[in-house]
Amino acid sequence: MKASAFSYARATSVGNALELLAAHGDKAKVLSGGQSLMPAMNLRLIAPELIVDIGELTELRGIAVRGDFLNIGALTRHADLLKSPEIATHAPLLTEAIAHIAHPAIRNRGTIGGSLAHADPASELPACMVALNATIVVRGRSGERRIAAADFFKGIYETALSAQELLTAVELPVARENSAHFFCELARRHGDYAIAGLAAQSIIAGDRFAELRMAFFAVGDRPLLAKAATKLLNVVVTPAVLSGASAALDEELDPQEDQQASASMRRHLAKVLMTRCVSTLLGRPNPNAGGLIDGHRVNFARCERRARRCAGFAAA
Ligand code: FAD
Questions:
Q1: Which of 26, 213, 272, 316 ranks highest by number of CB atoms within 10 Å?
Q2: CA within 13 Å, CB half, 259
Q3: If you count DSSP H runs as helices and E runs as strands, how many of each does the chain have, helices first?
Q4: For the segment 197-221, what is each residue's pLDDT rounded down to a tens digit?
């Protein structure tokens, strides 16, 4: 299929883009990398009257370290993030996550701002932003708004952005000493959208978590910052503690069912990911020896085998 007829404007500055958006309201759409917008238009899921192309606004592109923060312009492409030494040093969670986004052709055009504004609940970057406690910077004609990532995502393809605003940048605290990250997603093939995924950032003190932000994706209508992770803070994580956290996570989850997996399968995978995250971050080779999940004695390898057997998954 082809997109419905539309008008096209190439913005010459952020101010010009904002004027165009203000003049056309929700009949206009911003174009960044076009990797989600164009397929949606070609499938006629959306039919904007005007496309505002911001692709040449170089002031929205780039990565900079400013004191304790990393500033990433909205137009920075996935491929640039993947090869950035600043990102690898100060936000290694992102480097790891981006390798899972689609394939090189899409990463060469897709942008961080586009991914966050699009807010697909199965996307990697929204969950990373929540795990990293990022601030999303948004500009409208009346000025700038700074929104915590955990408050930015409102539902499937829904964010706190209005139709008259541009997402201009994200700001991340740089990784601190003793910080450790975890990223894992389960998908049918590498490069597919996740069936269930987890991005986590932690501070480890000895054998305990001093801080732990676990952001699950593809298991609800937006990235989920798991409150259950607080049960793992400042304690020795015994199988009983892990079991308690897993049960608390179950309460928080509201996964959708689709062609890829049932809701119960996603619940199961989220708990598998939580266990894997804890064992990886605390450096335990066999965390589930004698552990309990869902009241059953399990070991992690068996748990994963079961997840794979259920639907023929491969860890992406
Ligand atoms: P666009 O497509 O240009 O825009 C997306 C939406 O955001 C539009 O509604 C647009 O109006 C709005 N928008 C864009 N920029 C801004 C801005 N600065 N301010 C306000 N609104 C804005 N993504 C994943 O995360 N994981 C995957 O595994 C994955 N697989 C993919 C596989 C395929 C085959 C394809 C085609 C895409 C896939 N993607 C995946 C999507 C890809 O990451 C996109 O690049 C990304 O979601 C959107 O970025 P974009 O720059 O292309 O945005």
A1: 272
A2: 2
A3: 12, 17
A4: 999 999 999 999 999 999 999 999 9
> What does the alpha-carbon distance between residue 286 and residue 226 come to, in Å, rounded to a whole number?
23
Cα distance between residue 37 and residue 29, in whole Å:
9
Q: Which fold has domain 179-315?
A: Enolase-like; domain 1 (3.30.390)
- Cβ-proximal residues to 253 (8 Å cutoff; 6+ apart), any chain: 216, 219, 220, 224, 266, 267, 270
pTM (two decimals): 0.91
* Tens-digit pLDDT profile for residues 257-274: 998 899 999 999 999 999
Q: Domain 7-53 belongs to what architecture?
A: 2-Layer Sandwich (3.30)
- Per the CB < 8 A criterion, the answer to whether 108 and 101 are in contact is no
CATH architecture of 58-173: 2-Layer Sandwich (3.30)
Pocket mutation for ligand 1, best pick of 24, 37, 75, 144 (most atoms within 8 Å of C-beta): 37
181 and 202 Cβ atoms separated by less than 8 Å: yes
Residue 4 per-residue DSSP state: P
Nearest atom in ligand 1 to 36's CA: 2
Dihedral sign, Cα of residue 53, residue 55, residue 59, residue 60:
positive
For the chain, what are the domain ranges?
Answer: 7-53, 58-173, 179-315
Q: Is the CB of 209 under 6 A from ligand 1?
A: no
Which atom of ligand 1 sits closest to the CA of residue 40?
Answer: 2
Helix (H, G, I), strand (E, B) or coil at 280: helix
Strands 196-205 and 224-225: unpaired
